[in-house]
Every structure is written in structure tokens, then in C-alpha cells.
Specification:
The chain is an alpha+beta fold. The chain is 17% helix and 37% strand. The protein is elongated, with a radius of gyration of 24 Å.
Length: 278
């Protein structure tokens, strides 16, 4: 189904000198300009395209891939500012507008900001906003503890870091649950730590409880197997080296090593760890 601000796979229903028309169902026939066609594509061919509006507010298709669709968030640079607002480079020739009333503070040319994309309800034009709590939910009853999620870091507070969760929700990563510095605009993987009584969401960068440790233990065993049964990443290893290999904190890593040691699966030496069957 063709929707403004989304990708769709649409058939060619008419060829013209300046391109092809695609069947957009309720949106009508949608022009795909000639520059996005090749000689192999004819009537009936299906095209993977992104739908947006041209300068006359008419739906048009492109095979270019923007950095975000409507309903998604992205960290984008400001490339122009005029009386209408700020314009961001999102991967299409027509830049993405962030109206002044959708800016949490006045944007500056050349800087990048985290924004979420939406359809203007009156014009149906694609626009963006950095007023994230206006467009995203700050509570959820659908997310589950230990659920893996995609995060986009969108702010910092005295308690930790603010993050967009799966493009839909706003959550908080407490400093102790980050275990490394996070950068504004950074994308990373995380896990739901807690849903509070009021529905607000706490997030961690590592899985919690026994399930998280079980996964980490298997990762360590796989790492040892791939490296001849030995590794220098023992309980004295640097936190950055541990994170680079396993994407967890040193504390979580040491707990996993301890569990494997108690199961007699590994030996821990001053300079390395070893598989006991190695």
C-alpha cells in the first residue's frame, strides 16, 4: 500500500517520455521520474520506491533511500534556515523541513539534531520535529522487561541519558546502566530494564538477570572456541576491551566468567582464560 513518507513496491502502469507512472492505489498514479528508471523496466515491472510530495504537493516516487521514514527518528544535519524554519539533509534532493514551532530550541546552521518525522495533518507534507515528547510516547504497557530494542540517544540529564526506543517511545538510561559514555545522536542496542508503575521506561545497555548472563556465557565460550581455546580477556582485562568484544560492562563480564569457572568450563589464569577441554 502506497503511503506518503513510506517505502512501497508498486507496479509500472504507464510509460511516458519523462518517466513512468506507478499504481499508487488510493494515491492515484504516482510519477517516477525517468532518471530512476533503466532499460530493463517496462509495463508491469514492480519498483521499490519511497513516496513523498514534490514542490506542488503532488505525490512522487524515488528509488533513493532517505535516512528515515515517517514515524522514524534520525540524527540529521541542518543545511539551510529561512523564514519557514530549518532544513535538514535526509538523503533526498528536497530537504526536510523542521518548522520553528517544532524546534525544542532554535536550530543552528551546520549542527545536527535528533528529530522524528511526521506527516503534517493539514498539508500531508513530510516534516520533522525535535520536540520529541510531542510525537513519541513516554509510557508503554506493551514493552517487556529484557526485550531487545533499538536506541537513539537524544539527550542527557543528571540521572543519565534520554533515548528513543524503537522509534516509538522515550526512555531513560541511568548512568549505572550505561557503563560507558554515550553520545548525542548515537544509535545502539539496548534492553528494557523496567516499566515503572506510571508506565515510564528504564533501559539498560545489557540484558538483565540470568537470561542475560546465560547469553554472555555462551558468547565467551564461542569466543574461546574461535581463538584456540584461549583469550587474554580475563577478569583483569580493560573495560574498553571487554565492551569492544562483548558489548557488556566489566562487572557483567566478571559475573559470567565466575559462573563459567564454577561450572568448570574455563580456567582463569593471571594472563588469560582457557577452555578446560582445550
Amino acid at each position: 500500500m502506497a503511503q506518503i513518507g513510506q517505502f512501497a513496491r508498486l507496479p509500472i502502469v504507464k510509460l511516458v517520455d519523462f518517466g513512468a507512472y506507478l499504481d499508487g492505489a488510493e494515491l492515484g498514479n504516482i510519477l517516477l521520474p525517468k532518471r530512476y528508471l533503466n532499460d530493463e523496466q517496462g509495463l508491469g515491472s514492480e519498483m521499490d520506491v519511497f513516496i513523498h510530495l514534490d514542490s506542488n504537493d503532488i505525490p512522487v516516487a524515488t528509488t533513493l533511500k532517505p535516512r528515515a521514514c515517517v514515524g522514524e527518528a534520525a540524527y540529521l544535519p541542518v543545511v539551510d534556515i529561512n523564514d519557514a524554519g530549518a532544513f535538514m539533509d535526509w538523503g533526498l534532493p528536497k530537504h526536510l523541513l523542521v518548522p520553528f514551532n517544532e524546534q525544542h530550541k532554535r536550530f543552528e546552521l551546520g549542527r545536527s539534531y535528533v528529530v522524528t518525522l511526521f506527516l503534517d495533518p493539514y498539508s500531508q507534507r513530510i516534516a520533522a520535529s525535535s520536540k520529541l515528547n510531542k510525537h513519541l510516547d513516554e509510557t508503554s504497557r506493551q514493552l517487556k522487561v529484557n526485550q531487545a530494542v533499538d536506541l537513539l540517544i537524544c539527550g542527557k540529564s543528571d540521572m543519565g541519558y534520554k533515548a528513543i526506543i524503537d522509534n516509538q517511545y522515550l526512555g531513560l538510561i541511568f548512568r549505572d546502566d550505561a557503563f560507558r559514555p554515550l553520545s548525542y545522536g548515537e544509535s545502539t542496542r539496548g534492553y528494557i530494564k523496567n516499566i515503572r508503575r506510571d508506565g515510564k521506561i528504564d533501559v539498560s545497555l545489557q540484558a538483565l538477570g540470568d537470561k542475560g548472563r546465560d547469553r554472555l556465557q555462551q558468547k565467551i565460550l564461542d569466543h574461546l572456541s574461535a581463538n584456540g581455546g584461549r583469550s587474554e580477556l580475563n577478569d583483569r582485562a580493560q573495560p574498553d576491551d571487554i565492551y569492544r568484544e562483548f558489548n557488556v560492562s566489566k562487572g557483567a563480564y566478571k559475573k559470567a566468567l565466575g559462573a563459567l569457572y564454577k561450572q568448570r568450563l574455563i580456567s582463569i589464569d593471571p594472563d588469560e582464560i582457557r577452555l578446560n577441554n582445550s
